Request: fold
Amino acid sequence: MFVEAIEAILQDQFTPSAIRAIENTGNARPAWQALADAGFLELLATEQAGGAGLGLPDLFPILTTIGRHAVPVPLAQSIAARALLARAGAEVPTGMITLAQSCRYDADGTLVCAYTPFGTIADHVLAGGPDGLLLLDCRHAQREATGVRGSQCASLRWPPGHAAVPLPGVTSGEVQAWGAALHAALIAGAAARVGDMTLRYCQDRSQFGKAIGKYQAIQHQLAVMAEHIAAATVAAELAFCADGTQPARLPAAIAKTRSSEAAQLVAATAHALHGAIGVTEEYDLQLFTRRLHEWRGAHGSEACWAPAVGDAWLAGEMSIVEFVRSVALPAALPN
Reply:
């Protein structure tokens, strides 16, 4: 029910032309207000608190739908941030909230959240500090965009002395696990959209009298792409197979490792099969492949999370099959 409802709004609000307009002007307020008015920011909130009371398994298909539409506002991040703030017992501010990848203090006391997703348009940033959560008002921050065409990622700097009172009850690791899990789901959704676009193009594009999708070499590349999309989707879903509103660190690490690995391969194959048209600004493919590359690095790429997965396996002194089962089906293992 929720997936169909949000799908209808995303199709209406985030057409390719609307996405380009938001990227070019930075004005996402009308589209954001439509999402807020529909109540989709409170999907994880309890029914007593006016939310939908969804669990992580129910949220996963919604996040992949957001990825499929290349939504240019921090909808997924705001849903997660509201759940984290609720656990910390903090009041949730209005507006767009995003999750910081990192948080540090420079020598002069400047607070820096580097390469923050949606840092160019967010109203607030939720960062994991050593003493708890930091809820930061972006109105007081200096925003430094990456310079990448269409990117909404930015580094934010708050001047020395900026008041940021830690909110106890949530750790920095939990923020990073949420960031990894939700970006894995977004990658899975966008990768599926890229796969659909590429398959359709190969069916429509003719060369030497027949569709290029009829050639065995093209079919092989499409098959490999489909394998990576399926693997990324299964891995991403693993991070949401839990009770409560907090993805566990190890499943999130596995999800982000595999989805980030797939992101670059899916994007590269899509552009290889589309040829020159795929890199043009007018063609919609780049709206999704650009995000695949950006989301690959958001909250840690495969190079960041793979060592955590490897360390967990080595610490368990079990076979790789037993390790996978312990993560995917913990209730099925004997005590």
In short: Residues 331-335 have pLDDT under 50 and may be disordered.
